[in-house]
Design brief:
The complex is a heterodimer of chains A (242) and B (398).
Chain A (H helix, E strand, L loop, with lengths): L1 E10 L2 E11 L4 E5 L6 H8 L7 E6 L2 E2 L4 H7 E5 L11 H11 L4 H14 L15 H12 L6 E5 L7 H16 L3 E6 L2 H7 L2 E6 L2 E7 H8 L3 H9 L1 H4 L1
Parallel strand pairs in A: 3-8, 3-9, 6-7, 7-8
Antiparallel strand pairs in A: 1-2, 1-4, 4-5, 9-10
Helix pairs in contact in A: 3-4, 3-5, 5-6
Chain B lengths: L2 H15 L3 H34 L2 E6 L6 H8 L3 E3 L5 H7 L4 E5 L3 H6 L6 E5 L4 H29 L27 H36 L3 H5 L5 H33 L12 H28 L3 H21 L18 H11 L5 H27 L1 H4 L3
Parallel strand pairs in B: 1-2, 1-3
Antiparallel strand pairs in B: 3-4
Classes of the chains: A alpha/beta (242), B mainly alpha (398).
Chain lengths: 242, 398
C-alpha cells in the first residue's frame, strides 16, 4: 500500500509539489497523469527514496520514506521509459544478478528467480550474452527482469513506454497486467491515455504540482462524461488555451 | 554503510571497466608502452646521429693568403674531412658539411708574429649534428693551439707546468655508509620523472573509470535504477571510489613497469643504477597512495556532477595539466635548501618529498607535514565526493 499525504517538494525557489495526497491500495494500479514538468517524476523519485520530501508524509507498506529508506527500497521495483539503463558490457544474467545481490538475495534465490524470469520473458537465447548488441526490446526485457528480480510488492513505472516501438510498449503493458494479477501495488505515470484506460484502476491527474482530480477511472469518466483525452485537457487547462 | 554492498559494487564495476577497451588502453597499454617506445625512438635518433658523427666530419675551410699550418693540421687530423665545395654556406644549409672554419685574413702572419689570430667556426644552429660536430672541430683546433703554445714556451725555455699552478678535480661528497647517487643527468631525470609519473598516472589510469562510473551512469540512465536498489548511497559511492582508486594504482604500477623496461632496454638513455633505501620506498608508496586516493575522490565528484561522458571529459582533462605544474616548478629547486614553508602547499609538497627521499634526504618535519596535509586533502576530497553524491541537484542534474 502507498499512502501520500500533503507531499511537498521544492527545488530552490521552485515549488515542484504543492501538497499532494493519494492512496494506492494493495493490488491496485494508479495512473499518474500530467504534462511534462507537472511533478510526476518528482513524486516517483520521492516514493523510490531518491529524493527527500520537504513536507508531508509518504508511507510505503506502512514505512515512512524518511525513516526506513533502505527497507523500502527492497520492497519496490522501478522501471523507467526510453533507454533501459542496463550495462552493455555485462551479460543479461550479470545485469540481473547485480540487482539481486544489491537487494540482499542469496545466490540460490537469485538463480531460482532468474530461471523463472528467463522463462517468463523468453530470454533463453541471450541470457548469457553481453547486452551491448541487444535490440531495444531485448534490453527492455532485461530491465524489467532486473527491476523485479527481488520480487517487490510495489512497482513504480515512470513513462515506461516512452520512446519504445509497438512491440516494446506491448511487453511493458503485459508486464503491468502481470503485476496487477500478482497483487502488486503499482503506480504508473504516462502520457498515453489509451494505456491508462487499458491498465489503471484509478487515476490521479497532477498539474503544476497539485492533484487536480483523482479517483476510480470509471467514476471519473462518468462524472465528466468525456473520454480520457478530453477530460485530461480540461483538467490541465490546455483545451481553454487552444 | 554496508561492506557486502561495497564489495558487490566493486566486483561489478571492476568487471565492467576491465571489459572496456578504454581501460586497457589508458590504464595498461599506454603506461606500459609509452616509455619503452619513447626511449626506443629517442635511442634510434641518437644512434643515427652518433653513427654519423663517428664517420669523418665533412667540413669546409675559408682562408685567404698564405696557407696556414693550421689548415695542414686540420687536413691531417683524424675524424675530419675537408671538402671542396662551391658555396660553403649553401652546403652547410643542405647538411653536406657540418662546419665552416673561417680563418681571418693574415692568419698565418699573426701566428708567426705571436699575435692572437681569429678562427671563426660557423655552424647551422638548426642542425644538432652540425652543433655537435663543431665541438669536435673546436677540440681539433684547441689541439693545434696547445701545440703552438707548448712550442713557444719551449723556445723561451719555460717549463709548461710552471704556468699551471693548480689542478682542479671535482668529487661528490658521499657520507660514510651511503652510496653515491650517481649524480648528473641520470639523477636529475629520475628525480623529475618519478614524481611526475606518480602524480600523473593516477589520473591517466583512473580517468576512464571515473568518467564511466559517474557521468556514464547518468548518460546511460542507469543511476536512478541503481539508487533505488537495497544498497545505501554511501556503499554504492565507496564501491565506485575503490574501483577508481584501483584503476589509478594500476595506472601507476604499469607506468613504473614501463619505466623499468625502458631502462633495461636502453641503459644509455635511462641509467637506473640509483639505489633507493627501503624507508624511502615506503615513503614514496605512502605519498603516491595518498595522491591516488585524493585524485580518485576528486575525479569521482567531478564525474558525478557532469551530465555526460563529454562534459566529464572536459572537466577532468585539465587536472593533468594542473598536476604537471608542481613537477616542472620543482625541477630546478635545490633539495638541500628547500624552505619548509613549501611543504604546506598541497601537491607541491608531495613532489618535493618524493624528490627528497629519492636522494635519501629523510626529513621528519617535511614527512610529517606532507603526510598530514595529504591525509587532510584525502579526507576533504572524500567528504566532497560524498556531499556531491548526496546532493539532489547534482545527482538529478540535467
Amino acid at each position: 500500500m502507498i499512502e501520500v499525504r500533503g507531499l511537498k517538494k521544492n527545488f530552490k525557489n521552485f515549488e515542484a509539489l504543492k501538497g499532494i495526497d493519494f492512496i494506492v491500495a494493495k493490488g491496485e494500479v494508479l495512473g499518474l497523469l500530467g504534462e511534462n514538468g507537472a511533478g510526476k517524476t518528482t513524486t516517483l523519485r520521492i516514493l523510490a527514496t531518491m529524493l527527500k520530501p520537504d513536507g508531508g508524509t509518504v508511507k510505503l507498506n506502512g514505512k515512512n520514506v524518511l525513516d526506513s529508506a533502505n527497507e523500502i527500497r527492497k520492497e519496490i521495483g522501478i522501471l523507467f521509459g526510453g533507454e533501459s539503463g542496463i550495462y552493455d558490457r555485462l551479460t543479461a544474467r550479470e545485469n540481473i544478478v547485480y540487482y539481486g545481490e544489491l537487494n540482499d538475495m542469496t545466490k540460490d534465490e537469485i538463480d531460482d528467480r532468474i530461471k523463472h524470469l528467463v522463462k517468463v520473458f523468453n530470454m533463453e537465447e541471450y541470457i548469457d550474452r553481453r547486452a551491448g548488441k541487444f535490440s531495444k526490446g531485448m534490453k527492455q526485457k532485461v530491465a524489467i527482469a532486473r527491476s523485479i528480480v527481488h520480487n517487490p510488492s510495489i512497482m513504480l513505472f515512470d513513462e515506461p513506454t516512452s520512446g519504445l516501438d509497438v512491440g516494446g510498449a506491448r511487453i511493458i503493458q503485459q508486464f503491468i497486467e502481470t503485476c496487477k494479477a500478482e497483487g502488486k501495488t503499482v503506480i504508473f505515470s504516462s502520457h498515453s491515455m489509451a494505456e491508462v484506460e487499458k491498465l489503471c484502476d484509478r487515476v490521479a491527474v497532477i498539474h503544476k504540482g497539485k492533484i487536480v482530480e483523482s479517483g476510480y477511472l470509471k467514476e471519473i469518466k462518468e462524472k465528466y462524461d468525456k473520454n480520457m483525452e478530453d477530460l485530461f485537457l480540461e483538467l490541465v487547462g490546455e483545451g481553454n488555451e487552444l | 554503510m554496508n561492506y557486502k554492498h561495497i564489495a558487490i559494487v566493486l566486483k561489478k564495476e571492476l568487471k565492467d571497466i576491465f571489459r572496456d577497451k578504454r581501460t586497457w588502453l589508458a590504464g595498461v597499454l599506454i603506461p606500459v608502452m609509452v616509455f619503452p617506445l619513447m626511449f626506443y625512438l629517442m635511442g634510434m635518433g641518437r644512434s643515427k646521429m652518433e653513427n654519423n658523427l663517428k664517420q669523418d666530419i665533412p667540413i669546409a675551410i675559408e682562408a685567404q693568403g698564405e696557407e696556414s699550418q693550421l689548415i695542414s693540421y686540420i687536413k691531417n687530423a683524424e675524424g675530419l674531412k675537408v671538402m671542396k665545395v662551391e658555396d660553403a654556406y649553401e652546403s652547410l644549409k643542405a647538411g653536406e658539411i657540418k662546419t665552416i672554419i673561417h680563418l681571418e685574413e693574415g692568419f698565418e702572419e699573426k701566428i708567426k708574429g705571436q699575435i692572437p689570430a681569429n678562427v671563426k667556426l660557423i655552424y647551422d644552429e638548426v642542425s644538432s649534428e652540425s652543433t655537435m660536430a663543431t665541438a669536435t672541430v673546436q677540440n681539433v683546433i684547441m689541439g693545434y693551439t696547445e701545440g703552438v703554445r707548448l712550442g713557444r714556451l719551449a723556445e723561451l725555455g719555460i717549463d709548461p707546468q710552471k704556468l699551471q699552478p693548480t689542478i682542479i678535480n671535482r668529487e661528490a661528497y658521499v657520507p660514510e655508509g651511503e652510496e653515491s647517487k650517481g649524480g648528473g643527468e641520470a639523477l636529475m631525470l629520475l628525480t623529475f620523472l618519478l614524481p611526475f609519473l606518480l602524480m600523473l598516472y593516477p589520473v591517466i589510469g583512473g580517468m576512464p573509470a571515473a568518467i564511466d562510473l559517474g557521468a556514464g551512469e547518468k548518460e546511460r540512465l542507469s543511476l536512478e535504477p541503481l539508487l533505488s536498489t537495497g544498497a545505501d548511497r554511501l556503499s554504492i559511492l565507496v564501491g565506485k571510489y575503490l574501483t577508481i582508486l584501483l584503476a589509478s594504482v594500476i595506472g601507476v604500477i604499469t607506468s613504473l613497469a614501463g619505466l623499468v623496461v625502458s631502462a633495461k632496454m636502453n641503459p644509455d638513455m635511462m641509467p637506473m643504477e640509483l639505489s633507493i633505501s627501503p624507508i624511502s620506498i615506503l615513503i614514496l608508496v605512502g605519498v603516491s597512495m595518498l595522491i591516488a586516493m585524493m585524485l580518485s575522490g576528486v575525479m569521482l565528484a567531478i564525474s558525478v556532477f557532469a551530465k555526460s561522458y563529454k562534459e566529464a571529459g572536459t572537466y577532468l582533462s585539465p587536472i593533468t595539466i594542473v598536476l604537471m605544474v608542481p613537477a616542472y616548478l620543482t625541477m630546478f629547486m635545490d633539495l638541500r635548501t628547500i624552505s619548509t614553508n613549501l611543504f604546506f602547499i598541497p601537491i607541491l609538497n608531495a613532489v618535493l618529498l618524493m624528490k627528497e627521499v629519492l636522494v635519501d634526504i629523510i626529513n621528519p618535519v617535511h614527512i610529517a607535514i606532507t603526510f598530514s596535509m595529504s591525509f587532510a586533502l584525502v579526507v576533504a576530497s572524500l567528504l566532497f565526493t560524498k556531499y556531491m553524491f548526496n546532493k539532489e541537484s547534482v545527482i538529478f542534474r540535467s
